[in-house]
User: What shape does this take?
Amino acid sequence: MARVSRRERLRYWFDNTMAKGTPALIGWLALASGALILVVATLAVVITPHDADENGHWPGVVWRSLLRTLDPGTMGGDEGTAPFLGLMLTSTIGGIFIVSALIGVLTTGLEGKIAELRKGRSRIVERDHTVVLGWSDQVFTVIAELVEANQSERRSCVAILADHDKVDMEEVIRSRVGDTGRTRVVCRRGNPLKVADLELVSPGTARSVMVLSPPVEDADNHVIKVLLSLGARRWEGRRPHVVAAVHDSANLRAARLAGGPAAHVIDADDIAIQLIVQSHRQAGLSTVCTDLLNYEGHEFYMRPEPALTGRTYGESLSAYELGIPVGLRRADGTVAVNPPGDTVIRADDEMILLAEDDLIIKLAGSRRAPIVEEAITGAKPTRPEPGRTLLLGWNQRAPKIVRLLDEFVEPGSALTVAAQCADPCEALGGLANLKLDFTRCDPTDRTRLEALDVGSYQHVIVLGQAGHDPQHADARTLVTLLHLRDMEESLGDPYSIVSEINDDANREVAQVTKADDFVVSDKLISLMLTQLSENRHLYDVFADLLDPEGSEIYLKPAAAYLRPGATANFATVIAAAARRGETALGYRLRDRFHEPPDYGVVLNPGKAVPLSLTADDRVIVLAED
Assistant: This one.
């Protein structure tokens, strides 16, 4: 092994110190400045003692040399012998180089620090904030909803961790979301799969953590890995609740196992299927769910109500001036949505209420809206009859949609599948109530649609065609809807149309088709995740609403509650629904079915405001069937 010389060791040591960055460079410049000043002062005392004495001897010369090093203009008033002036000139020239180098070092260091901050690699210091892990189009809906939810807060924060440029994320959020008010949005660049990167958004002090699915093929695998990464982190004190969604039902159990008891993982595929199937039977359900999940509308809140202790749930329906009771949350955490009217409210129960904001929920006291008894109808609900449904298009959700339809429809009902795919009838054998038929057809072909005799069906479901990207699939859906609407106008409005849309931006474009309802699953999932991030106990409420065994949301004919054309109020509608074991939430006006932004849906209306409904209007209720 070759022997290392002292010079090489010194050079290696110097290189290492220089590699430490701006502080080391400043230190070397300071050392060089000190050496120059001391050397010049010492030489001045030795070579020109007379001049040195006139300038305060060695300490005075050191001070003058320091001034000349830092400010070259100071030399303009110097007097003395030539050697003394030469030494001061040397100090000035050396200072010019040192100060220039210092300015360059500081500029470079400042630029490097700014570049480092732009990378988003510094750890945030926040408490009770919401952490969003991942990046997709869902993030804009989530941020907009959190901003709306936190309007009454003095300060709130949303921290986003994604493997994207920090500045780019912030610019896109500003352009897509706009002003965020009192809510600060902080972006950090990092991989949510790495525990070290998770620390950049301080999950240990967060109120909640939301995991978003990325726009990749194996999105569920990414979500599961992030949940495992969160589980691997060492938590101190209270652990924030985690919310996430998977798009393949087969991955649900694995995701919930990865997330542990602190995580609520929802099945996005199942929710979309439930909404499509139920909306085909009662158009407008997706619009109602969007309003319930959207913070700009009316939401579910939980609050104790000691004044109602000992009274029944049926009595509580008329006890609020602002807000509608929809259920109870017991002390053990169990939730009862639309319980029997004789259910007694306990002291440790929480009321589940539908309201525009939790700050305006108010008991009625002694002055309550009158019930117009003569407006209540005694009409009995009609038993549904077997129907005919046309399913246009085919994708990964279609088999589950067919099987769920089989559970809801009456025996003897018929379903025709018209799509560009292989015949699914054999694979979907064993249906109890549906008679299944298949026709190979391109749903965008007007001639083929007319050959299907669409007018003979009561319901039409349009699905996005598999094998196309979301935007292309939506474009094909829009063409199909235009054909159906044009055909319907000539046939005299014989069928309802429910369509699946991938991008919510395309819903506004699709309004020209006047379809009865649109199911935008990604937006609904984003809204639900946001609701759960704000209140984890709402998970049980939504689970109950989506469970076919419990009470679900229905849009029933208004004539079953009020005499058509009779003037009453919503308190009368609540009373009429309660006598049927139901909870009324609002109504939908037929004349405004296609008018954005509410599409005729009115939730939690004023109880005393005069109200008249027609036979074509719908009352929105919670009911078991």
The mean pLDDT is 84. The first helix runs from residue 6 to 18. The domain at 130-261 is CATH 3.40.50.720 (Rossmann fold). The CA atoms of residues 125 and 202 lie 7 Å apart.
